Each structure stands twice: as structure tokens, then as C-alpha cells.
């Protein structure tokens, strides 16, 4: 599994409290503890929590699927996550899983708890919901993402009209009920959904990609903003579907964490003025 790709969850100011909660629920550990960024590790997977202020609220367009091996495990996580949260789909038996539930926790993060087979070593799988103007584009998006990243591929696909499940009259038969795809060794799930939800992709949940060099940074950035995506600040962008990405050179993190605080601060100030991150400009700021 690739730990250079991972979800980032946006918080107003409670990321430390949330990080401690998730580490308690899933027996994880905190690996970075700063006033702005918390990194945690759950089941060997990285998750970033960001204190960004009240601008964005997380929603169900990106949820985290936790693939559990026993009914007791599903129940254990459910009992903790539902405390102060809300059930979006009741914990029950469904045609796709003997024990499954969808919960929005007290911090607004959406979790799908699923008794099922684990894909490789990855236990937590970000799940993208293609709704509104994106409804019907899950297949196209999987093809786009897997062409953009190396070591990628499309796995199992269940369409609404061809599954073992209940046929939904509101869902066209060819739309994706459940799709699995991998980008650079990291698994995602996705689905189309015709329901008129009051939310859509936003910065509340973004996907971080750590890059090795400028060439890789340029490639991911330029490809993801193509055909209707848009650039934001500090390495953030939205792709053509509105999904938020952070394209972050590993060198930026090294320079920002330099023991010389004044040099590190110069790097941060240079980064704050950038859209796409330029490593050479960061080095110049560091050495200035």
C-alpha cells in the first residue's frame, strides 16, 4: 500500500481532539502533532487532520470505508463513532454485507463500516460519491485517475442494473453502484448516486499526493486541473469533478521541518504565495 497518498480532513480547530478520538476508536497513533496539522496512523495508513478554520464542512460525498473482518469489529467501531454522531444508514444486514452501517461522527466525518473482504493490505478505503452534475461519471473518473497515476488499475465494478442487489428505479442501469480502483497502489471506491443531496465535493475532505520531484509534481498538477479543473493556493487544486487534491513535494515537508526556524519560516512564506509548489523557489527561499 502506498503511504504517499492519503486523505486530509478539514477541521475548524478541533483536529487534535479528533485525532485522539480516532486513535482511540481504531487503536492508532499520532505521528505529527502541530497546531495546524495532525497526522495519525490507523492500521498502518496515514490520515491528515488540518485546522483550517470554519470555511469548509466535511460531508458524505467522500466517506471512509472501514473493511472489518468480524461482526464484533463492526459493532465496536459503530458504538464509538455513533456517540454524538448520526446514522445515515442504520447498522443492519444488507444484500452487500451481513453487517453494514454508515455513520457521520461527532466531527462530521463519514464512515462506512463494512463486514467483507479486505482489498490487499488497505483497511480504510476513501469512497467517492458522484452526484448532481457528476452523476454517471464514476466510470469516466476511474479511467481519468488511473491514467493520471502510475501503478494504477480498475478493479471490481458493480452496475446498478446488473448486480445481485435491489434495482433502484432512480438509478440508470449502466451507472456504477460500487467501483474499486487503485492509483499508485492506493485503493479507492466510488459510486454514482442520483439523489439530490444538499452537498457535493468540497475542501472538507481532500486527497494528498506526496511527490518525489518537480517533474512528478508538474505531471499530477497539470493533468488533474485539465479540462475544467482549477488551481487553488499552496498546492491545492480541484479536478474537473470538483474533488480537492493537495500535490505536495516531499522536499517541502523536509524544508518546513528544518531545525533552523528562520529558514523554515522563509520556506513557509514562499509556499503561501504559490499555487503549484515549485521546489526550486522553495530552495531559493531556504538559502536566501
Automatic annotation (TrEMBL):
Segments crossing the lipid bilayer: none
Chain ranges of the PhnB-like domain: 4-113, 122-248
InterPro entries, per database record: Glyas_Bleomycin-R_OHBP_Dase, PhnB-like
Pfam families listed in its UniProt record: 3-dmu-9_3-mt
Superkingdom assignment: Bacteria
Descriptive protein name: VOC family protein
Amino acid at each position: 500500500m502506498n503511504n504517499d497518498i492519503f486523505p486530509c480532513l478539514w477541521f475548524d480547530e478541533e483536529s487534535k481532539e479528533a485525532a485522539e478520538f480516532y486513535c482511540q476508536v481504531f487503536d492508532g497513533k499520532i505521528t505529527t502533532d502541530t497546531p495546524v496539522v495532525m497526522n495519525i496512523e490507523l492500521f498502518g495508513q496515514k490520515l491528515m487532520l488540518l485546522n483550517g478554520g470554519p470555511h469548509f464542512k466535511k460531508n458524505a460525498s467522500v466517506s471512509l470505508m472501514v473493511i472489518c473482518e468480524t461482526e464484533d469489529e463492526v459493532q465496536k467501531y459503530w458504538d464509538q463513532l455513533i456517540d454524538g454522531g448520526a446514522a445515515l444508514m442504520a447498522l443492519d444486514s444488507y444484500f452487500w454485507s451481513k453487517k453494514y452501517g454508515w455513520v457521520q461522527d461527532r466531527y462530521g466525518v463519514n464512515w462506512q463500516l463494512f463486514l467483507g473482504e479486505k482489498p490487499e493490505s488497505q483497511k480504510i478505503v476513501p469512497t467517492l460519491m458522484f452526484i448532481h452534475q457528476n452523476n454517471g461519471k464514476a466510470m469516466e473518473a476511474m479511467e481519468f485517475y488511473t491514467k493520471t497515476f502510475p501503478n494504477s488499475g480498475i478493479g471490481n465494478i458493480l452496475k446498478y442494473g446488473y448486480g445481485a442487489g435491489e434495482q433502484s428505479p432512480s438509478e440508470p442501469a449502466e451507472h456504477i453502484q460500487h467501483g474499486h480502483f487503485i492509483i499508485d497502489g492506493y485503493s479507492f471506491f466510488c459510486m454514482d448516486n442520483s439523489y439530490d443531496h444538499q452537498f457535493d465535493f468540497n475542501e472538507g475532505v481532500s486527497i494528498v499526493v506526496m511527490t518525489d520531484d518537480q517533474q512528478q509534481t508538474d505531471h499530477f498538477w497539470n493533468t488533474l486541473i485539465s479540462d475544467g479543473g482549477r488551481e487553488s493556493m499552496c498546492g491545492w487544486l480541484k479536478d474537473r469533478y470538483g474533488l480537492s487534491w493537495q500535490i505536495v513535494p516531499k522536499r517541502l515537508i523536509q524544508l518546513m521541518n528544518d531545525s533552523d526556524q528562520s529558514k523554515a519560516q522563509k520556506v513557509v512564506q514562499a509556499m503561501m504565495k504559490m499555487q503549484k509548489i515549485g521546489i526550486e523557489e522553495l530552495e531559493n527561499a531556504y538559502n536566501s
